[in-house]
Design a protein that fits this description.
The protein is mainly beta. 3% of the residues lie in helices and 29% in strands. The protein is built from one helix and twelve strands. The protein is elongated and about 85 Å long.
């Protein structure tokens, strides 16, 4: 992305000789080849966009993440060797929720709140919060082990955790119809990067609902 805060004609692409090849970039209209007399050339390889603004989240605060509806979302040419974005979000995601994943122009990949790129029934946003890949349908956040023992009067629940996340354990009786009114059994359980094994008091029920809530504690 080649962005200037002033008019597009303040942006000069060349200040020397040579050949500049442009592909999958965003610029303001009106940019010039050079502000002087240079012998360089510009080759347009396609996929380049122009517009009044790229759709940054908060340009004044130097937050250059893209917003929903930005023309830079899902418009880049996909490359299987692409690295994750500046925040570590894998590419490409289905940023415009049309069922097709494509890379965004810019340093940040937009995460659509409802898109499910790998179609594993967990949306991309939830998977990133949980610390699992939104591109791998075999990887999703779940309880790995659960059970109760009469001898110790304990309920044990285990799940794979990720550093930078905090977990809570919730429960409901077997006749509950929704998670409204759930009971919180534990909070502020720090992720270790390995299997977490939580033990709590057994309620005496033969069956019961449990869930693990995740909070992403990393800086936004």
């Amino acid at each position: 992305m080649l962005y200037v805060t002033l008019a597009g004609n303040t942006l000069a692409m060349l200040d020397d000789t040579g050949d500049l090849r442009l592909r999958d970039n965003w610029t303001k209209p009106g940019w010039v080849v050079s502000h002087g007399v240079l012998g360089g050339t510009i080759t347009n390889l396609g996929g380049n966009l122009t517009g009044a603004a790229p759709g940054f989240f908060d340009e004044a605060a130097d937050d250059y993440r893209l917003t929903e509806g930005s023309t830079c979302v899902d418009t880049h040419t996909n490359n299987p060797a692409l690295e994750p974005d500046y925040d570590g979000v894998p590419r490409p995601l289905d940023g415009n929720h049309d069922g097709v994943a494509a890379v965004d122009i810019g340093a940040f990949e937009f995460v659509h709140p409802a898109a499910d790129t790998d179609r594993d029934t967990q949306c991309d946003q939830d998977e990133l919060v949980a610390g699992v890949s939104p591109l791998d349908p075999s990887e999703w956040f779940r309880i790995e082990e659960a059970g109760s023992t009469h001898a110790t009067a304990e309920t044990r629940i285990a799940w794979h955790s990720v550093t930078g996340r905090t977990y809570a354990v919730h429960t409901l009786p077997p006749d509950a119809l929704s998670w409204d009114g759930h009971v919180v059994l534990a909070t502020n359980i720090a992720g270790t990067g390995g299997l977490l094994d939580w033990a709590g008091p057994w309620t005496g029920d033969a069956r019961r609902f449990y869930r693990i809530a995740v909070r992403d504690d990393r800086a936004p």
